[in-house]
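Thought: the user wants the 3D structure for the chain below. I'll pass the sequence to the structure tool as-is, report back what it returns, then summarize two notable features.
Action: structure_tool
Action Input:
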Amino acid sequence: MRVIPKLFVPALLLAAAAPICLAAAPQDPVVLAQKQITAYLTQLADLHCTEAVTQEKLDGNSHVELSERSQFDYLIMMNGDADNFQLNETRVETPGNRHKLISKPMLITNGVPTLLLVFHPYYRDGFTFETRPEELISGRRTIPIHFAHIQGHRTPVALALRGREYPLDLEGTAWLDESSQQVVRMEAALQHDMVDVGLRSLSIHVDYMPTVLAGQNVPVNLPSVAIVEVTTPRQHWRNTHAFNRYRGFSTDVEQDPNVKIHPDTTAANGEKPSEPGQQGAPTQP
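Observation:
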């Protein structure tokens, strides 16, 4: 069983959504959240980080029966608007993290940080949004925004099972910091069970933590921990994703001080001599 972001673009797999007129209600918290989160998702696509994943199979008493751990270099690239949208997620297992896979199948979850796509212009007309009363989270005043999927409309999350993909009807809440409008927490669950395809329940919980990126003074809230829990009539799984070491994938290139770069010269036979290269994050995915 695999829970994935549903990447679909007319004319990519996870009727054009009409853009919301911001001038109609400039102080509407939902409109402000949609504007802020759309800009936030653009920034998230310029970053890569380290992702540690713990996959757990639980028994009937919710005790861990099997566990598998892995670590990846994680990168999201996305672009698009209300009419066209594309998202690509890259996960490369980090060197030295090779491990023996367990024989029994485990739940595979990916794309969890992109749950906020429910606010993106490409998806938001497929959801209803409602501002709830203010709540305190870790001493911060937050604005909860409840969302619910409209059945039959596009959704950013799907279930992959036996070679088929099933769009998921989700509802949940995003909590935004009242002062910065940045997301603090997000939770989502199925609106109804899907026992016809073997899915009894699914829940997603994502916490966001302030992170100061290189070259910036103002912290931005980025995904810190995401927990996905899935139950079927016979199985119970829980996956935990921990994200850290955020950096810009196009800027964090470092020159090894011990490597000397020589002027570009051409040998007598017309071939260039080999030169030491740079070490650091690549500038292209």
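Final Answer: Structure generated. Confidence is low (pLDDT under 50) at residues 4-26, 251-285. Helices lie at 29-44.
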